[in-house]
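Dear support,

Our group has been running a series of protein-ligand predictions, and this particular one with adenosine-5'-triphosphate is the one our PI (initials K.S.) wants archived with full inputs and outputs. We had some confusion internally about which version of the output was final, so please treat the block below as the authoritative record. The input we submitted was:
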Amino acid sequence: MTTLQALRGTRDILPDEIAYWQLVETTARDILTRANYQEIRTPIFEQTELFQRGIGEATDVVGKEMYSFSDRGDRSLTLRPEGTAGVVRAYIEHNLFAAGGVQRLWYTGPMFRYERPQAGRQRQFHQIGLELLGTDAPRADAEVIALASDILQALGLKNLHLAINSVGQGDDRDRYRQALIDYFSPYQDEIDADSRDRLSRNPLRILDSKDERTQAIAQNAPSILDYLSDDSKRHFDRVCALLEQLSIPYDLNPRLVRGLDYYTHTAFEIQSDDLGAQATVCGGGRYDGLVEQLGGKPTPAVGWAIGLERLILLLQQLRDSPNPHPDYYVVSRGEQAEAQALCLTQQLRQANLAVELDLSGSAFGKQFKRASRSGAKACLVLGDAEAAEGTINLKCLESGEQESLKQSELLEVLKKKGKRQ
Ligand code: ATP
Ligand code: MG
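Confirmed final output from the archive:
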């Protein structure tokens, strides 16, 4: 029989690693909740058409990376490759705009793209993202960037850079598209095959090519900043000025275009120096046309998504696992003692202490070794003698000091000592 294994590009997140994930999730949730963002959970699969219409046929994500399949009713479904399209569909479907004004939403969960797996790139990966819908104010762009920056800073990450650009809108984009077609056409035979393919369909995406030769040619391509209308320029200048007032450093990168078609105006990425080739931790921007494109009323919006695998890789370089230690470790031996130990452990847990109970019934020496490894500060010891007397020993694992306590007073005493720091 073949051994069953997790599929290529997917992985198990094991208990050793999970504390990092929980730290990221808690940090993001706290920061976003304080900023009045509400969590939204949308389905993991959707009609394929949602992504085709939302993300754009000419993008890599839709053209090459989607996990699409027919279900038993012959409907074409797709495992979501990103979060925004589903959130916007839900926003339209449930009239979330009827609540009036601005809607602040965030989400987290797995996303699926058929890509070549490598460090920081998987077929099932996870994102935390947010969407701020219903305002075209430059302050909204600045707010969402500031929140991404707050989350990454709260996690203690260093060596991150914010790169920002405007991809304009409507006419500016059309004129720029034409300028790129004019610029790249003479290089048709030198650029990579994908880029050649994009030349007529989606020339902006050539700027995003990872091919070295194409990148070198793209160095001298026209800059979108020279094609922005006065309105687009005003919006972008304002966003940049606000970032300065927020003391958020940024680099202007006129070649930054994002992988998804729906972006307008502001596009940005946060990259790390410590990740090698897959350096982008957070990508986002404004997408004023998407709600209308998916059948809603015209609604400006801006958002981002953070790739959690890459974030966790960075955290692992930075610190040991934030796995919590128990406050107390309970060792016991003998039938009566073991039963009492279980009951006392439960009593302490119900009083909000973190208590690990050794279930082995092995010799005290072995149990003490495990107690030390657990990281608990103190051990609670119950043998036949203590069980018969209704007492329990509290042993400090650092100093080895012991004191005998009445079981009936244990909870009170431990509460006074407080939780392990
Ligand atoms: P890339 O250029 O790295 O492929 P992208 O432009 O396709 O990124 P987005 O769609 O903007 O990425 O997604 C936002 C973030 O999600 C990325 O910056 C990255 O951190 C993460 N991400 C995207 N695809 C993957 C993947 N296949 N595996 C792991 N993380 C991913
Ligand atoms: Mg990609």
